[in-house]
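Aim 2 progress. For Anaerobic ribonucleoside-triphosphate reductase-activating protein, the working sequence is reproduced below.
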Amino acid sequence: MKVMNIIHDSVVDGDGLRTVIFFAGCPHFCEGCHNPASWNIRNGTEMTVDQVVEEVATNPLTDVTLSGGEPFFQAEEVAQVARRLKELGKHIWAYSGYTLEQLQHSEDKAKRKLLSYCDVLVDGPFVLAKRDLTLKFRGSSNQRVIDLNRLEVNAY
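Predicted structure tokens for this construct:
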């Protein structure tokens, strides 16, 4: 799979201390995107599932955030990563330009499988006209922070 970067000890990409995996490739092309270099999957570095999991495991104190780009763009491999991270006891957040409903009803089984490993989903495309710097863990007011274990939209 193609990975842009893995950073440790983030406090802005989800609740608590997190390791963030930025995946390459994104079909949404949101105007004002904070990471437009990630749109092109060729900009990423090829990594195996084992390599990604091993890098995350070097920091046992953090939970994990899947970001991008679009983590559901490479859903089959990212789902394998997420499964392995859940086995390590990691709490997983995912940022996606897709809505929860689009992922739940996707014909792509890998997208639904990846979603099943996530604890929290920040969904919806970034909309520049709805940008709001006061929002916690999201960039625009159309995006939702959803506790998938309770299927509640959190107002943060």
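The longest helix spans residues 75-87. This observation will guide construct design in the next reporting period.
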